[in-house]
Structure formats: C-alpha cells, structure tokens
Amino acid sequence: MSTPGTSPSPTSPSDTGPSDTTVSGTTVSGSSLSDTGRSLRLERVTPANVDAALALRVHPHQERNVSPVVRSLAEAYAFGEKAWPRLVFDGDELVGFLMAFLDIPWDEKKDPADRRSGLWRLNITADGQGKGYGRFAVDAVREELRRHGEQRLYVTWEPGEDGPGEFYRRLGFRTTGEVSGGQTVGVLDIG
Predict the structure, then answer these.
(1) End-to-end CA separation in angstroms for the chain
(2) Do 188 and 173 form a contact (C-beta atoms < 8 A)?
(3) How far, in Å, CA of 53 to CA of 161, rounded?
(4) 124: closest CA among 75, 65, 76, 189?
(5) Rounded distance, CA 140 to CA 176, Å?
(6) Closest Cα to residue 1, out of 48, 87, 44, 62?
(7) Alpha-carbon distance 165 to 72, whole Å?
(8) How confident is the model over 120-168, as pLDDT tens digits?
(9) Which of 33, 76, 148, 184 has the CB geometry, 3.0–4.6 Å to 83, for a possible disulfide?
(10) Which pTM does this prediction carry?
(11) 147 phi and psi, to 5 degrees?
C-alpha cells in the first residue's frame, strides 16, 4: 500500500505510548489472543526484534502489492505518532507486520479538513497466508482506531488479480470510488 492520501503532514517523531487493543474480547499488544490453540499477539518493534521484522517477506507474487517492512519502519519514524507499527506473532513465530495511520490529512489540496485513519500496511509472511493472521491484524487496527474514537477504517490496495481487494471485501470493506497513489480506496464503518 502506498502512503495514505496524497499529502499527509506528520507531527512529532514519538511513539503513541502504551496502547493495548482488544480483539475478540482479548487484549493484544504485548498480551495474547488464544484462537483454536494459537496464541496471536501484537508487539512493538524493538531493538530485540527489528532484525526479524526487516527479514519478513511476503509471498513473491505479492511483493508488487505492498512495500517491504524496511520502508514502513522508515515512514513510521518520519510520521511519528501518526503511524502505529506492530509485529504479529503466533506464539514465538513472527507471522506479519501491520502499520496503521492515525488522523492524517487525506488530500489537503482537495479538502484540508478531511482527516482519516486506517490500515497503512499489512505484510503477512508467505507461509502465513490463509491462516487468519490478516484478519487478526485488521481486527487489531479496528480496535486501536475505536480506542482513538474513530468511526471508519480506511485502507488502500493495489487493484488487479493478485491484489488484496477480495480479502478486504470479505472483511466488509467497501470501495469509496477514490484512487490514492494509483490504489483503490476502501472503507469499513467501525463506530
């Protein structure tokens, strides 16, 4: 996914601080979510896990659809508290990376008051496809946005046969008719 909107303006380069998110009634972000014997959780990117995060690879046919984690972490640094990067673990295994964007100007030239929040990046490992990790990640972002008082969750995706459009539609996203950076814009009501 590209940078959300066309001209976001970052604020201070700090993390949003501790932030537990509830998914399906269980706290994530350092805690566990048991799902049919699995222990799914989100963790912040730290010095202890950054190398594993940088080594995360999606399936080769998906590489054109999503930027690598290294780019996401650079953008997270640049956007500061407007970015919410997290690693997805199943037990001790790193299975994905997500990054949300929080309250950014969407298209300042068109409408300076249009501020949005949503899912900026979702990278699930090649071996982790089809195991519910993507759904878990979207649910975690949904709960984080609710915690911030948001009513909608936006996402952009590469259109086409190998793109993730069908995945997002199955989760309830609908297209807005907008295009951002050549990508389809979708929205999910979460309020």
Answers:
(1) 24
(2) yes
(3) 27
(4) 65
(5) 22
(6) 62
(7) 20
(8) 999 999 999 999 999 999 999 999 999 999 999 999 999 988 889 999 9
(9) 76
(10) 0.82
(11) -60, -30
